[in-house]
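Re: weekly structure request thread

Next one in the queue (260 aa):
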Amino acid sequence: MIKEAIGIGDTELQAQEDACRQLGVETYEAEFEIIQRAEKKVFGLFGGCKAKVRAFIKTSPADTAVDFLKKVLVGMGLEGVTLDVKETDENGVTIDLAGEDVGFVIGRRGETLDALQYLTGLVANHVENAYYKVTINTGDFREKREKTLEILGRKLAFKAIKTGHKTSLEPMNPYERRIIHTAVQKVNGAISWSEGENLNRHVVIGPDPKAPKSFNRGGRSRGYDRRPKRSVSAPELAEDAPKRAPINEGDGAGLYGRIG
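Done, posted below.
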């Protein structure tokens, strides 16, 4: 993306400085095109004109993301937060925040950090009108959060199998819901799905209705079926195996959609 501005001055140098002030950059950071050279008045009375210069700079999605994030942090009164920027090979950038006030940036269960990541991603994606992934982290917060969610998903999956009841979790963004779904998929006998809309969309974990019933110590299963059993071949078993992929997730992106 190219940002440009037209500067005007009594000299070409003054016109360049005027254009750079509009762009918010130094003169050595921009390229220039002379539109009109300065001309002195004849006899100091007639004609003459000021210099007019076009200044332009090329900005990348990463640069735009960093500039936007810095302005937001300053607006939040967090001028002491530093940014470590690393562009990835997957058409994206990771911005790691550090400083005494990063706890305030994280917010409750990462909600403030997620909101900053979402907004910064929106701005970066407008640069080239193409998908550009922005990840904002502080220390290893996201890694710890992911591990916590995985443990929670497995714990509630085993609880659903044991009690036969479902459990509704608090609203989460799509990224965190996917972590829960993936964790539940690894537990045979449990299944997860999403309910609610937008900010209220949340994961529900319950027993898989298609999973085989477990036997108790007396050798009888719950809901014991006294009808004679027919033999089932291996191919039939494979075909009738329950599909345990998360259901009802839908295409709704909610607040933190593809960009987050």
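Residues 141-163 form the longest helix (23 residues). DSSP finds seven helices and nine strands in the chain.
Next request, please.
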